[in-house]
Design brief:
Length: 1512
């Protein structure tokens, strides 16, 4: 390691000194500012005591304190930024500037070390002594070796180490840098100085105890307050100051206050007298730090080659060649990401003397960071007597205030710890007893848990031991300090508080080293464990670095250079280049200070250090390291190492304004017989390009083919059309296709399917044979066999993928496309031979040679990219644009550009052409070459015929050969008020704006979607008013058409019945086929959209039925009003993502009414049934929904309609909050015959049952639209398919006698069929931005069968359905017989009996009551029925409630009922006691005639038939 000025003991002692804070009044600051100093700066040169101090330890033994230094600082309450174990950018800049400012002196005394056979010059003169072209290098080394100075000093490392230790923030696990005392300074000129002292004391108390500030940190709660009265001798009255001081002594005691007299002379007087200035050396060291702290915020680090530069001081890149300390801190070289022994590729340096002379002609601006304005003097008002007073003040404060204060607290802490631990003697007296025994085996770091975040209470015994240890260490009582650290270490390890344990280990090792007398062996393993814990467990690299610096110094003092070097090398990392460079340099010095010097290891590590210096922007230090290493490598035949070192020396010399050395180094590399491989020779690309550039006439005839960068031709993408226009205001533009989207083959198939559907819809259901799907973006995965079609006046964007194979950056400038173009007029068809003969081919190759010439913009406008930067080994794409102005055939040939190996002046790398930040030419003005690369894309391999399979042949890829067609319309679509989140089933009204931004009118506007049930543009056949009719809906901006409920209408009764055809809403099948339901025509005013015209249309949206995020694709199709073009149509894509939240869950069940057909006919109803609707609020208030209101229930069917709501509650309005459920009961009747028309035009009957004060007309847009889109397909074709498949299977399986199973199934199904759709319309009250918003929506439930519950689709059921569909066989299993559930609905039963019956049981014990059982056949077939009266209730509960009775007479009947026949069966029931009885015990079994299966009717579960028997 290098020789240091201080001894190791002095260095460690000065690293940990007592900290004293200063609080000054304003007047006191004015007094000190006369000397251009504040109070802490005024005291700084006098803070080291020249005499010994004395204090007693807890055992009353006298301890001598020698050479003590205290640290006095102003109180800074600015909260510190948490560093997380690493330096902040401000601290990094500070350290970089400190190292930059400390350089070896030019022309100083030679610093030479003799190591083995080498005489190593360790000074700045080694630059001249080591270069191979320096002719007298051997004589120079001989001359230097005769010098008497053989020590190698590195003052920059010492400066770095000092600044590093000073900039360390105070931490909670140690107290060494916490403040022990506070100086309260008040001027004697104050009116009432005592009041000022009181204010400062209160301020100090507030800062320490109110918890507002994390900094500064205080050692103990009872901080020593020392009161200083500052008297200005040049102004104030000395007598008054003395009287105030006497009062202070009475108030604070003579030990706690001091009268300091300064400014004995005025600044103007005594200019002849030379007063020493001891402050300069201290202020220069701290000036950078103070400047750095004032810079807020810190500049963003410049990133070069993916490496952040830590030393960017000015925030702007450095001007190359400026020989200044500032630039050493900020410049970045192009070797940042390369290995130090690997030759770089395309290094950013010219090999030309002309460029070197151009740089040499620049003005050399030097900036020196001194931190103080030039010519500023310090202490101008102070005399030598004042200096002595300051020195005496520090001594008095320390001996009479600080040391007694520390001594008192050491005793207090010792007494507390002894009492807490139950010891009878002090720690010091039982040291041997506690620590002299056998050693306890310690756990390894790997075994300990990471508990670095453990925090102790401030009054914890473990922290009290640590406080006592730190106090003893600060006053040089190292033996007691070691004992306390050792004790604390064990406590912390037992608690696994690893940060605290590491700190105790570190200080225990240092205390052991510093103990005098019988030397205790230095516990190096303590330091190793502490370093490992700091770095690996606590992740605090700053503390690990501090620990390593101490340990290395100690090892060096013990001549353990090998261990020190190993430790220093281990501490290097990628986090800080500057720190790693300094540690590697010190490790290299360790190798040559060993008993047997390891010179080659020294040289190797100096190379590593130079590389890290270079990455850190320290060019001077990097050059020095390489030059020192060159002394070992030169002349040994290691050409690769020499090439690397010489190249780096030349680059750094050029940057540091040493052109002679730089020119010689580059010449040596170029003329040397290099043994580099072809890849490594790319390091000289910059020089070769410069030479190539200056050869006249090369680029004037034709453009040469350039080898760099590599182009991945197959990855070339071509985009046709304008880029997406940014939306304005609330408008949301259609997403369409862009180059920023990645190609998805599955998604492309979806878009192609949508386009096929909409093209078929536009061409009467047939897809033309010449149809090709529209491809706006061509890539390697698209079909490129055909010539793509582009439109004139619409740009063509070509995306080219570049790859830089080198490890140095490349710059391409004036980058553009090469093309050739053949003019063709597609508006006038001509014979093929005439067109070929008249074809005129135009190219831009000649214009591309000189980019400043006039281009052929009237044919094709070619975009030029001024500069394209590529980082080392970067893959990057460039997007180049062509704008065709005429029709014809275009072929894109390749690219033309200027290639340079250096970036422009905006980057923080070396650039030979940058004169300054503001006035430098671009990289193309220097060493750059203009050339071309062709784009040759290989098509897909052909593999169809036998010849193609046996040979390797490729088809064409025509993505770069577009045909430019005549103008076409261009549509832009914007969405207004389009939501991103909806409730399930919520109806929202939005608007769509269609803009024709071309010069051609468009027509035939259609839209296809993957979710046709998500939106509707409304019905074109029905006149739907856009303005709501009821005042309430108008206030709430309802999306529905509503009417006010008539005044006399009863809530829950039918308010409207409407007949609607499905064809009116685009759901009638039509000519669109199976895909027609996905395509909708968009109505335009006059059928066309003229150029520049825009129109807005309403768009109704309905939230998906399943919760979650839904991706919904829209494909807008349009044609040109001018037919006959090469492009038949165009499309525009749009993708939206809708987040659906839960709303309501609706379940519905249909039950057959018990009324007989005769009663229904009497009431005027043609069949009736009961419909139960169960509505549950499953919303979890995630969208701010307060409650749901069921506003209306509507029905839609061809056969049934809702008649009225028969809920017993008077309040028909159903309100549901979260997780509430409501049940509604409705009576449904069959539609009257006159309500349906002929079979060919079957219409749906819509019936509305309003539960509120307004009626929503469900038969109009948007309610009917979403109903037909949601429910109609499932009704129309799914049951039909099911019946057909069942019929086929029935015939294949065979049927029994008396008729086929198909007929039986049909009869039973028709008996149980309902085919009724329920539409539940709801309103949700939502709170948004403290305002209530009403949302509307509708849910659909399709009732198919009596007794079978139907529900709105839920997520769980949908997932199950998907799984079933996935694994479903091609044909469903055969259903030869109707199910038991279906058979149970064949017969409807009813009991007729008197509600009460009186009988004299005293006179006659048996009471007989006549009962009539009415049987009604509900089917259209003959049914066999069995009535069993022998069944008795076996439930004990039923017996207790209803009692027991018996049926008299015949107990079993077998009857046969014809189709829809009603039969009455007289029965008699016998009772023995009075009471309440349940007559509903007869069991009725039914089956179709000639079938074997019997089934009990479902009416057994009905309400009990209760009769009351009275006794008279």
């Amino acid at each position: 390691m290098s020789q240091c000025v201080q001894s190791v003991q002095e260095f460690i002692q000065d690293s940990f000194v007592p900290m004293v804070a200063v609080l000054c009044s304003e007047d006191a600051e004015k007094v000190t500012r006369k000397n251009n100093l504040n109070f802490s700066e005024l005291l700084r040169p006098f803070c080291r005591l020249t005499s010994e101090g004395h204090m007693r330890d807890p055992n009353n033994q006298m301890q001598v304190v020698k050479n003590l230094r205290i640290s006095v600082n102003n109180v800074v309450t600015r909260p510190s930024v948490p560093t997380a174990g690493v330096h902040s950018p401000a601290q990094r800049r500070l350290l970089s500037e400190v190292v930059s400012a400390c350089q070896p002196a030019e022309g100083g005394v030679a610093n030479v070390i003799t190591a083995g056979d080498y005489d190593l010059n360790i000074s700045d003169r080694s630059v001249k002594a080591s270069v191979p072209w320096y002719s007298d290098w051997r004589d120079t080394l001989t001359e230097l070796s005769t010098s008497k100075h053989y020590t190698a000093t590195t003052p920059w490392f010492e400066a770095y180490r000092e600044s590093f230790l000073q900039s360390m923030p105070a931490s909670d696990h140690e107290f060494l840098n916490h403040y022990l005392a506070c100086l309260l300074v008040v001027s004697s000129s104050e009116a009432v100085p005592v009041e000022q002292f009181l204010k400062l004391s209160q301020e100090q108390h507030r800062i320490q105890h109110n918890g507002e500030y994390t900094n500064p940190k205080w050692f103990i709660p009872n901080t020593l307050k020392y009161y200083v009265l500052l008297h200005d001798m040049s102004q104030g009255e000395e007598q008054r100051a003395d009287s105030v001081y006497e009062d202070m002594k009475q108030r604070y005691g003579s030990q706690g206050c001091y009268l300091l007299k300064i400014n004995s002379r005025t600044a103007a007087a005594g200019t002849d007298e030379q007063i020493p200035d001891p402050w300069s050396q201290y202020l220069n060291k701290s000036s950078l730090q103070s400047q750095d702290q004032s810079e807020e915020p810190a500049p963003t680090p410049v990133v070069v080659n993916n490496t952040a530069v830590e030393n960017n001081v000015g925030g702007a890149p450095e001007m190359d060649g400026h020989d200044s300390a500032e630039n050493d801190g900020v410049s970045v070289n192009s070797l940042d990401n390369t290995h130090p022994l690997q030759l770089e590729t395309a290094i950013d340096m010219p090999g030309s003397l002309d460029s070197l002379r151009a740089i040499a002609a620049e003005t050399n601006t030097t900036t020196v960071y001194t931190g103080v304005a030039a010519g500023t003097s310090h202490g101008a008002c102070l005399t030598l007597n004042d200096h002595n007073r300051l020195r005496l003040f520090i001594q008095e404060f320390t001996f009479r205030g600080l040391l007694p204060h520390i001594e008192k607290h050491i005793r207090q802490l010792n007494d507390q710890l002894v009492s807490r631990k139950g010891l009878s003697r002090s720690l010091f007296s039982v040291t041997k007893k506690l620590f002299g025994g056998g050693k306890v085996p310690e756990k390894s770091i790997a075994e300990l848990k990471n508990t670095s975040g453990l925090l102790y209470h401030p009054e914890a015994p473990e922290l009290q031991i640590r406080k006592m240890a730190d106090l003893c260490f600060l006053v040089q009582h190292y033996e007691l300090a070691y004992s306390c650290y050792h004790t604390a270490k064990k406590d912390f390890l037992s608690d696994q508080a690893m940060l605290y344990a590491a700190g105790a280990l570190e200080m225990a090792a240092v205390s052991a080293f510093l103990q005098g007398g019988a030397p205790r062996p230095y516990p190096a393993h303590y330091m190793d464990t502490a370093i490992q814990t700091y770095r690996d467990v606590c992740k605090n690299k700053v503390l690990a670095e501090r620990c390593a610096l101490f340990s290395a110094e100690v090892l060096k003092s013990q001549a353990k250079y090998s261990d020190a070097a190993t430790l220093l090398i281990k501490m290097t990392s990628e986090d800080s280049d500057l720190c790693s460079a300094l540690l590697l340099e010190q490790a290299a010095h360790c190798f040559i200070n060993m008993r047997n010097p390891m010179v080659r290891k020294f040289a190797f590590h100096m190379i590593l250090a130079g590389h890290r210096f270079s990455k850190a922007g320290q060019k001077r230090h990097a050059l020095r390291c390489y030059c020192q290493a060159m002394q070992v490598y030169k002349g040994k035949g290691w050409s690769l190492a020499e090439d690397h070192i010489n190249f780096t020396i030349g680059r750094q010399s050029f940057t540091l304004r040493q052109p002679e050395n730089a020119v010689s180094a580059f010449r040596h590399i170029l003329t040397n017989d290099s043994q580099q491989t072809s890849t490594q020779q790319g390091a000289f690309l910059r020089e070769y390009l410069y030479v190539y550039r200056n050869v006249p006439g090369v680029c004037e005839v034709a453009l040469p083919q350039l080898p760099l960068p590599c182009i991945n031709s197959s990855a070339t993408r071509v985009y046709f059309g304008h880029e997406r226009r940014l939306a304005e205001g609330e408008k949301q533009a259609a997403t369409h296709v862009s180059l920023d989207q990645e190609f998805d083959r599955d998604l492309a198939a979806v878009w192609q399917d949508l386009e096929e559907q909409v093209v078929a819809a536009a061409n009467r259901g047939v897809v033309p044979s010449t149809f090709y799907s529209t491809q706006c973006c061509l890539n390697s995965q698209t079909d490129n066999l055909h010539f793509p079609l582009a439109v004139v006046e619409e740009p063509i964007i070509v995306e080219v993928a570049f790859r830089n194979p080198l490890k140095v950056p490349l710059v391409l400038s004036d980058l553009s496309l090469l093309w050739k173009f053949t003019l063709k007029d597609f508006s006038r068809p001509q014979p093929q031979d005439v067109m070929v003969g008249d074809a005129v081919t135009i190219s831009n190759e000649k214009e591309a040679i000189a980019p400043m010439t006039v281009q052929k913009d009237d044919i094709i406008t070619t975009e030029v990219i001024p500069e394209f930067y590529m980082s080392p080994e970067e893959t990057r794409v460039a997007r180049l644009k062509l704008l065709p102005r005429q029709t014809g055939q275009l072929s894109i040939l390749g690219l033309v550009y200027n290639l340079a190996s250096t970036p422009s002046t905006g980057d923080s790398t070396i650039n030979s052409n940058s004169f300054s930040q503001n006035q430098g030419p671009s990289a193309t003005a220097g060493t750059s070459v203009r050339g071309r690369q062709d784009l040759e894309i290989q098509g897909p391999r052909l593999n169809q015929t036998k010849e193609e399979k046996t040979s390797v042949s490729h088809g064409p890829d025509r993505r770069l050969d577009p045909t430019i067609t005549p103008p076409m319309p261009l549509l832009e679509v914007f969405f207004l008020q389009f939501p991103t989140a909806l409730l399930c089933g919520e109806i929202r009204k939005a608007y769509v704006e269609f803009c024709n931004v071309s010069h051609v009118p468009l027509c035939g506007l259609r839209v296809a979607s993957t979710h046709p049930d998500f939106f509707t543009f409304g019905s074109s056949s029905l006149a739907t008013p856009l303005t709501p009719l009821s005042p309430t809906s108008f206030e709430n901006c309802s999306a529905y058409k509503t009417l006010a409920t008539p005044p006399g209408a009863t809530p829950g009764s039918v308010t409207a019945v409407t007949l609607v055809s499905a064809a009116d809403f685009g759901s009638g099948g039509g000519v669109f086929g199976t895909g027609g339901k996905r395509v909708a025509e968009i109505p335009l005013g006059e059928g066309t959209l003229t150029p520049g015209e825009s129109t807005q249309l309403p768009l109704w949206l309905r939230g998906p039925d399943q919760e979650g995020v839904h991706e919904i694709n829209f494909l807008f199709y349009y044609e040109s009003a001018e037919k006959g073009g090469k492009i038949s149509h165009r499309v525009l894509r749009h993708t939206v993502f809708i987040c659906a939240s839960r709303s309501l869950s609706v379940r519905a069940t249909a039950c057959r009414s018990n009324t007989l057909p005769e009663e229904e006919r009497e009431e005027g109803r043609n069949g009736s049934m009961l419909v139960f609707v169960d509505v549950e609020n499953i919303n979890t208030s995630e969208a701010g929904v307060r409650e749901f209101h069921i506003a209306q229930v509507s029905s839609s069917s061809k056969h049934w309609r809702l008649h009225k709501c028969i809920n017993p509650a008077e309040d028909k309005d159903c309100k549901l909050t979260t997780r509430e459920r409501g049940k509604l009961c409705f009576r449904a009747t069959r539609c009257k015959p006159h309500e349906a028309t002929s079979k060919s035009l079957e219409k749906y009957t819509f019936a509305d049952l309003s539960l509120g004060n307004e009626q929503i007309i469900s038969s109009t847009t948007p309610c009917a639209d979403f109903f037909f889109r949601r429910c109609q397909p499932s009704e129309s074709w799914r049951p039909l398919i099911a019946m057909e498949t069942q019929g086929r299977h029935s015939r294949s399986q065979g049927a029994g006698p008396g008729g086929g199973a198909e007929d039986i199934t049909g009869v039973v199904r028709k008996c149980n069929e309902v085919d009724l759709n329920i539409i539940v319309l709801w309103k949700a009250f939502v709170v948004e931005d403290n305002k209530q918003v009403i949302l509307e929506g509708q849910l659909h439930v399709a009732l198919q069968t009596i007794g079978k519950e139907a529900c709105s689709l839920t997520q769980k059921e949908e997932a199950q359905e998907m799984v079933l569909l996935k694994f479903k066989p091609e044909l469903p299993p055969p259903m030869t017989r109707p199910s038991m559930e279906q058979l149970s609905h064949l017969i409807k039963t009813n009991l007729h009996y008197p509600e009460s019956y009186s009988h004299p049981f005293v006179q006659k014990s048996l009471c007989m009551v006549p009962v009539t059982l009415t049987l009604s056949n509900c089917s259209l077939a003959q049914v066999d029925a069995i009535i069993d009266l022998r069944h008795k209730t076996t439930s004990p509960e039923s017996l207790e409630v209803h009692g027991s009775f018996t049926w008299l007479g015949q107990t079993q009947y077998k009857l046969q009922l014809r189709a829809q026949e009603v039969m009455r069966l007289p029965l008699r029931a016998g009772f023995l006691h009075a009471g309440v009885y349940n007559l509903g015990t007869p069991r009725v079994f039914a089956k179709l005639a000639d079938q074997g299966a019997m089934c009990e009717t479902s009416q057994q579960t009905a309400t009990p038939a209760l009769i009351i028997i009275n006794s008279t």
